[in-house]
Amino acid sequence: MAEKRVLLIVGGGIAAYKSLELTRLLRKAGVAVRPILTQAGAEFVTPLSLGALAEQKVHAELFSLTDEQEMGHIELSRSVDLVVVAPATADLMAKAAGGLANDLASTTLLATDKPVLMAPAMNVRMWEHAATKRNLATLRADGVAFVGPDEGAMACGEYGPGRMAEPPVIFEAIMALLGKGASPLAGKRALVTAGPTAEAIDPVRMLTNRSSGKQGYAIAGALAALGAEVTLVSGPTALGVPVGVTRVDVESAREMLAACEAALPADVAVCVAAVADWRPADASGRKLKKGAGAPEPIVLVENPDILASLSKDARRPRLVVGFAAETNDLEAHAKAKLARKGCDWIVANDVSVAGTMGGDRNAVALVSASGIEQWERMAKDEVARRLADRIADQFA
Ligand code: CTP
Asked: Of 70, 85, 374, 389, which one has the greatest count of Cβ atoms within 10 A?
């Protein structure tokens, strides 16, 4: 494989020192690193350290005559295979989400036509601020990939999510995006369902479930990172398509089932979608008018069970994994579901924990015929990576 090139934007945060280690790991693996150091970043690491480890000139200014003569900022943004922002500060994320271009880093992010990976790092309050959440959602919808942040003790003395992912983890994410990572699932086809389904009552009203789609999207991305060819059959969500994944958009449970069947054969299926169990028996083709008083009761009929159908399909994937959102008796319910649906594993999800629904973290247990394994509470991205690793083990 030809030498891969990464543009590394180092933002201004205490985690900037970790980007030196990241640079070293990349160079050791034969990846060329073109560094951009923001003005704030230079308060934490010196251009000399970064340049020495990268064995490249450090770019810092937007209006540098020499730099522009050697390689203009537009060319710089396109001369690489991947743009990495580490640490991605709240400020850099806000600039990128808003499309600002008032320094070299933000201009490069706006001008690039290459995939972008961000490793956020900031104080926990900043990470949890509504503005940062909005920016994160916007960037995800724009197709930016994220690694971390981790939860832990922070340099500012607080505790929580906001620590930049460790250099080896960012390195792995970079290698996967460059197509140079370990690819234990290369040649394997994966089918993932995610998001809610929407069942029409009439053209403007629907029955649906609460589901952000985050966990399913993260799993699709993690399987793709391990080399699988992934089809993500998704109900309506506000999320961007993960790197390397093919998404098929559907609305109703019946459409989801049809799209899943069309995606077979597959080696593994992971059903994460929050499928509506019922749908109105007769969806009206016209908007129901209010008239006088309450409408006629809506008669519901049962939707197909996609997980159960895939489990008993003639072309059944070798490994079928379901999810179970439970509020109580997690293990008993998950085991019953495993038997009822005929799948191989159930990832039991304790939604009684505040913040799980729609949040970024998840507490799950992996249930199979051989027992139950409780995983500690972790980021949904991390749950996805672990599950993808476990799936890869099955195909080793
Ligand atoms: N599922 C599916 N099709 C359905 C319903 C559920 O594929 N019509 C899948 C989900 O994607 C998930 C698993 O089945 O992987 C379990 O979903 P859950 O809602 O927890 O289970 P239910 O079948 O609805 O059972 P219960 O209402 O008893 O919890």
From this structure: 85
